[in-house]
Amino acid sequence: MSTVAAPTAAAGQTPAAPLDELMLAMDVVDTLRHEEGVALRELEQDGRDDNLKQRLRSIYESQGLEVSDRILDEGIRALRESRFTYTPTPPSFKRTLAGLWIRRGTIAKALALVVLLVVGWASWSVWQDQRAEQAQITAARELTETLPRQIQAAAEAALSEAQSDDARERVEQLRTDATAALSRSDAEAARVSVAALNRLTEALRETYVLRVVSREGEQSGVYRIPDVNTGARNYYLIVEAVKPDGSAISMPITNEENNRTEVVSKWGVRVPKATYDAVARDKMDDGIIQNNVLAEKRRGSLEPSYRVSVSGGAITKW
């Protein structure tokens, strides 16, 4: 309940200003509204103003305030006339415009955020379109310019190293594969062929010898009894690939017993029994294999050239 103290005019002093009386009347109306149930019943009955004034006076006196009859009458009359009561303006176009003007700051911020989001989305879309367009240009250039040059350069480098017919045939086959990939716009397949040509060039440049292993504690040869023919034996010499500087090379070797390819530094080469026995005799003389070079891989060739008769096939475990 809202209350406003009424200043008491002392003898010889100037009476309270009209504004103070107006404020007191407003306070009376406010008090009546808070006592809405009582006020409505009293107002609906003629001649009950005295009861209502008495009730209001009791309320103010309980707060230590003294309010004149004139102020109480003015408050009751104001309540009847609905004074000091806010009545909303009915909806209209002007009211809508006024509301928008009052909230112009909030609306401006919201519009700025919307504009920012729209501009950001538009910029991102343009950037995405530009990226896609640039990717298409790059892909087209790769198919028409970059990859053809790479294929040509890789094939020429490999051919310059090839010293055997099978090596040259391999180069031409990879070049044909790469060109076919370009014709069907398969850039990935073309890149794979270029990489294969580059690996082939490195392989053609490589030189090494296949040397029979002859070290203490290591086997130089083994034989195996095939499961399908227990009356036969397969003979293998254990070899390693050694570069001119003496370092060993690990190579991919397919094991003929399980058809699995493994990268190993030592493996067994299948040879006829006569070759196997000759190496065995060489080692039994003094524990050293004098003729330990089984084959030589020359620059420009794909495969090593064997100095002895071999049966083909290899094993990676024994």
UniProtKB/TrEMBL annotation:
Keywords: Membrane, Transmembrane, Transmembrane helix
TM region positions: 110-127
Database matches in InterPro entries: DUF6384
Domain of life: Bacteria
UniProt key word Transmembrane: yes
Protein name listed in UniProt: Uncharacterized protein
Record organism: Nitratireductor aestuarii
Source species taxonomy: Bacteria, Pseudomonadati, Pseudomonadota, Alphaproteobacteria, Hyphomicrobiales
